Amino acid sequence: MNLFDDDDAFVGTPKSNFYSIARTANQNIVEMEVDKILRRLAVAERILDEKGLDDEYERAVKASVIDSEIDERTDGLYIELVGNIVTQCE
After folding, report:
1. Is 9 helix (H, G, I), strand (E, B) or coil?
2. Is 0.85 surpassed by the pTM of this model?
3. Sign of the dihedral defined by the CA atoms of residues 15, 20, 85, 12, in that order
4. How many angstroms separate the CA atoms of 25 and 49, rounded?
5. H/E stretch holding 89
6. Does the pLDDT at position 7 exceed 50?
7. Is 62 helix (H, G, I), strand (E, B) or coil?
8. CA nearest 21: which of 51, 1, 40?
9. Cα separation, 44 vs 28, whole angstroms
10. pLDDT tens digits, one per residue of 23-50
11. CB 84 within 8 A of CB 18
12. pLDDT per residue over 42-86, tens digit each?
């Protein structure tokens, strides 16, 4: 299954590439990969909660609306999702 036209492969942002792939890929695979990312987030939140850092976490999330390092990490997660989905759809 070719999820991209050769001329269009990965020309957008990591986020736009993810959504493009998510619309055309096997939905079971997309859902499974999104579930994995959300589970990782849930684990991280539980760890922060257990360490009493949940309020600090919420403040950091609000403060990071404009933060290039967080943007890069977010792009990395989109790239990871796309890679995982494409690999399983081939």
Report:
1. coil
2. no
3. negative
4. 35
5. helix 68-89
6. no
7. helix
8. 1
9. 24
10. 999 999 999 999 999 999 999 999 999 9
11. no
12. 999 999 999 999 999 999 999 998 999 999 999 999 999 999 999
| Percent of the chain clearing pLDDT 90 (strictly above) | 82
pLDDT value for 1: 53
Q: Which residue has the tokens 């492969």?
A: 9
What DSSP designation does 52 have?
T
Query: Is 82 in contact with 18 (CB distance < 8 Å)?
Result: yes
Contact of 22 with 85, CB cutoff 8 Å: yes
* Contact in structure between 24 and 5 (CB atoms under 8 Å): no
Alpha helices in the chain (DSSP H): 14-24, 27-50, 54-63, 68-89
